[in-house]
Amino acid sequence: MSTNPVIEAKGLDLTFETNDGPVHALKGVDLAVDKGDFVSFIGPSGCGKTTFLRCIAGLEHPTGGTLTVNGMTPDEARKSRAYGYVFQAAGLYPWRTIAGNVRLPLEIMGYPKSEHAGRIEKVLDLVDLKGFGKKFPWQLSGGMQQRASIARALAFDADIMLMDEPFGALDEIVRDHLNEQLLDLWARTEKTIAFVTHSIPEAVYLSTKIVVMSPRPGRITDVIESPLPKERPLDIRDSKEFLDVAHRVREGLREGHSYD
């Protein structure tokens, strides 16, 4: 564990005020994410996984505790282009080509036009979409659209990738393939990745660290350091080590529900 985590939460609380009274979305969250970690957040719907990711991104503001990203507040980190964000849906503009969609953050952030083509070519190559820049989103499969969305988040080369169930809507075969590709991408870029999922096998397969969360209010019930090697063929999911970690995640989820 490094002394300077990339993301650090201490006693983090978030309460939403609603017409029906306060909703405690997060309570007492303590977590440190180190540079180069691949951290998955798993838990039932309503446990605060996405809310915590949105706090890291500065899209929600905690009501208690502290949260730093690269030693800054989340708002400061956002302004310094510290992270890329990949949403559940690809969210590509249908009237823009794939290259045009990837170019969007470069335009918004004011990158010199002379850099655009090189950056777009590099990230499309990284996500195995070389040669698809002139296609439109409707010409690509769901899995390819999501890879284009990842390319867009990579375009400005942020050190941190925040990913909110990016493969949740895809079928299992496509999801497996994209999981393999994401691990390869992570190994090549050495990004720090925070990844929200509902899938136990996905969390165990991808992560160096698995954060198990409980519902109402969202708390961390377990943080599991993965014993799996960095090189992970898909058939590692049949190994005893993999199944043992999956069992511990499942137990943590069950324990979380016992608080209800």
Number of helices: 8
Number of strands: 9
What general outline do the C-alpha atoms trace? globular
Low-confidence stretches: none
Q: Please identify, by name, the CATH architecture of the largest domain.
A: 3-Layer(aba) Sandwich
Distance between the termini: 32 Å
Class per helix and strand makeup: alpha/beta
Rounded to an integer in angstroms, the radius of gyration calculated over CA atoms is 18 Å
Helix content percent band: 25-40%
CATH topology of the largest domain: Rossmann fold
What is the name of the CATH class of the largest domain?
A: Alpha Beta
| Number of structural units classed as domains | 2
- Give the mean pLDDT: 90
Q: Per DSSP, what share of the residues sits in E-state strands of 2 or more residues?
A: 15-25%
Characterize the biggest β-sheet.
6 strands, mixed
- As laid out across the biggest beta sheet, the strand order is 5-6-7-3-8-9
Name the CATH superfamily classification of the largest domain.
P-loop containing nucleotide triphosphate hydrolases
Q: Output the helix-strand order.
A: EEEHEHEHHHEHEHEEH
